[in-house]
Specification:
about 35% helix; FAD/NAD(P)-binding domain; five-stranded parallel sheet; binds flavin-adenine dinucleotide; about 25% strand; seven-stranded mixed sheet; Guanine Nucleotide Dissociation Inhibitor, domain 1; about 450 residues; Polyamine Oxidase, Chain A, domain 2; alpha/beta
C-alpha cells in the first residue's frame, strides 16, 4: 500500500498528536487528527484574556530541547523563541530567599551552615555521582538521604517531592530526579516562543493541513476496536472512521475507557497512577521577585511553588501586566481537585497576598485571577520502570501508543513528547517502507 492511500488516525491534539500528524502528513501519509476539546494543544493549551491568549499552565522551552527545537525549525518558529537567563528563589516559612549562587546558599538560614555546605557540594557533584548507578531501581529518598543526609532530605527534598508526587514521593526512582537535573538548573537560560504557545500550535495545524492532513477539534473518540490490519474509530452520531493504523496519545486510563473488550485485553496491564494539577494565574500590576520559579515550603499556602512567568516572557504578551502561576500537584479525586475553581481562586488569592506582603503586594495589585486544572499530568513511575515501561506497539492490533507513560526516564515536557512522536512516526512509516529510517 502506498503512503497516499494508507489512512492513519491520530487520537489527541496535544503536542504529541500534532507532532505525529505533522511528521506523517509531510511524509505523504493520509492523516486525520481527532481532538476532543475545541482547542488543540492539550496541556499546552490557552485561554483568552483581553485581546491576548495565555497558556493555562506555565510552559517554557529549554536550550537542550533538541527534538522540539527541530520541529519548531520545520514550521519556521525556531528563530521566534526568545531566550533569557532566569533565576530561582525559595520561600521557606514565609521568608523569600535567592537560590542561585554560593552566596545565596550561605545566606539560606533555614539550613544550618554545615548542611548548606553539604547541600552545595553534593548538588555540584550530583549528576556525576549518579553516573553508572542503577538509579531506576533506587528510591529517590534512599539516594538523596544517603548523599545529603536526613536533615536536607526532610527539610527540603521531602516537601518538594511530596508536592509533586503526593504520598508516593519517596518511592519515585532516583533516575527521574537525575534526568530532571540534566534538563534544569537554578540559573538557566529558558525560552518562550514569540506569540506564545498558541502561535506554535496554530503553525503546526497550518503545516499539517497544508500537507493534506485533516484536523478535527471538538471530536472526541468514543470507541476503538482494532485488528492487525484495520482499526475502527467511533465518533459521535454513529460516525465511524476506518484506519490502517491508529496512534493514540491519550493517557492510558482514558484509552482503556474507549477500547472494546478485545483491545482492552491487549493494552498494557500496568496501571500507572497519575498526578493532576490545580494551578492559578495571577495577573499583576507590578512584578514580584523577578525569580522565574520558587518552591514554597511551610508557608501556610496550599500551593507549593510560584512561577513568575513575566520574568521570562516579559509583560507585553500579557497586555502590560505581570503574570505569576502557582500550583499544587494532586490526584484528580482529591478534595482540592474536586473543589469549585472560584472558591479555590478566592482562598489562594488570600494566601498569595499573604506570601508577598513583605514585598508590598496588596489586593489593588491583583488585576485578574484564573484557576485551571488538569487530571493527567505526571505519571507516578514505580521502581524499575525502565523494564516495565509499556511497549509502544499493542500486539495483535494496528494501534500504537505514544503517551507520557512512554517517555520515561525523560521528564514530561513538550520536548520528550516530540521525541516520542518522532519515534512512533518512524515506526508507522517503516511499516510501509521497511527501509524507512527515522523521520
Ligand atoms: C502545570 C504544567 C507545567 C508544565 N510545564 C512545562 C514546561 O515548562 N515545558 C514543557 O515542555 N512542558 C511542560 N509541561 C508538560 C507538557 O505540557 C506535557 O508533557 C505535554 O503537553 C504532553 O503532551 P501530550 O500530547 O503527550 O499530552 P496532552 O497534552 O495531555 O494531550 C492529549 C490530548 O488528547 C486529548 N484527548 C483526550 N481524550 C480524547 C478522546 N477521547 N478523543 C480525542 N482526544 C482526546 C486531550 O484533550 C488532549 O488534547 C507542563 C505541564 C503542566 C500541566
Amino acid at each position: 500500500m502506498s503512503e497516499s492511500t494508507r489512512h492513519v488516525v491520530v487520537v489527541g491534539g496535544g503536542i504529541c498528536g500534532l507532532a505525529v500528524a505533522h511528521r506523517l502528513s509531510h511524509a505523504g501519509t493520509r492523516v486525520t487528527l481527532l481532538e476532543s476539546s475545541d482547542q488543540l494543544g492539550g496541556l499546552g493549551t490557552f485561554f483568552p484574556t483581553g485581546d491576548r491568549w495565555v497558556e493555562r499552565f506555565y510552559h517554557c522551552v529549554m536550550p537542550t530541547d533538541d527534538s522540539l527545537l527541530a520541529l519548531l525549525g520545520d514550521i519556521g518558529a525556531r528563530d521566534g523563541v526568545r531566550w533569557k537567563p532566569t533565576r530561582m528563589g525559595m520561600v521557606v516559612d514565609g521568608e523569600h530567599y535567592g537560590f542561585n549562587s554560593a552566596l545565596d546558599l550561605l545566606r539560606f538560614t533555614p539550613l544550618r551552615l554545615r548542611d548548606r555546605v553539604r547541600f552545595g557540594v553534593v548538588s555540584l557533584l550530583l549528576r556525576r555521582l549518579g553516573k553508572g548507578k542503577d538509579l531506576d531501581n533506587l528510591r529517590a529518598e534512599d539516594w538523596l538521604r544517603k548523599l545529603y543526609g536526613d536533615v536536607i532530605w526532610s527539610e527540603l527534598f521531602a516537601p518538594m517531592f511530596g508536592s509533586k508526587f503526593g504520598d508516593a514521593f519517596g518511592d519515585v526512582p532516583a533516575l527521574y530526579l537525575w534526568q530532571r537535573l540534566g534538563r534544569e538548573s537554578n540559573v538557566a537560560t529558558r525560552g518562550y516562543p514569540e506569540g506564545g504557545y498558541k502561535a506554535v500550535i496554530d503553525a503546526l495545524r497550518a503545516s499539517i493541513e497544508a500537507a493534506g492532513g485533516v484536523v478535527r477539534t471538538g471530536t472526541p473518540v468514543q470507541g476503538l476496536r482494532s485488528t492487525p490490519e484495520r482499526s475502527h474509530v467511533a465518533l459521535a452520531d454513529g460516525e465511524v472512521l476506518e484506519a490502517d493504523q491508529v496512534v493514540s496519545t491519550v493517557p492510558l486510563p482514558l484509552l482503556r475507557g474507549l477500547a472494546d473488550a478485545e483491545l482492552a485485553d491487549r493494552l498494557p496491564t500496568l496501571s500507572l497512577p497519575y498526578q493532576g494539577v490545580v494551578n492559578a494565574l495571577f495577573f499583576l500590576k507590578r512584578p514580584l521577585t523577578g525569580n522565574y520559579w520558587a518552591p514554597v515550603l511551610r508557608s501556610g499556602t496550599e500551593f507549593d511553588g510560584v512561577i513568575e512567568m513575566s520574568a521570562l516572557a516579559g509583560t507585553e504578551v500579557y497586555g502590560g501586566r505581570h503574570l505569576a502561576y502557582v500550583m499544587h500537584y494532586t490526584g484528580r479525586n482529591s478534595a482540592l481537585y474536586q473543589e469549585d475553581s472560584e472558591v479555590v481562586a478566592e482562598r489562594w488569592t488570600r494566601q498569595f497576598l499573604d506570601l508577598h506582603r513583605d514585598l508590598g503586594l496588596t489586593e489593588a495589585d491583583v488585576d485578574e485571577v484564573r484557576v485551571f486544572k488538569a487530571p493527567f499530568v505526571e505519571p507516578v513511575y514505580p521502581l524499575g520502570f525502565l523494564e516495565r515501561r509499556p511497549s509502544v506497539e499493542v500486539p495483535g492490533t494496528s494501534v500504537l501508543l505514544a503517551t507520557t507513560a512512554h517517555i520515561y526516564p525523560d521528564v514530561t515536557s513538550w520536548n520528550s513528547s516530540v521525541a516520542l512522536a518522532d519515534e512512533v512516526s518512524a515506526m508507522v512509516l517503516a511499516a510501509v517502507d521497511p527501509v524507512a529510517e527515522r523521520v
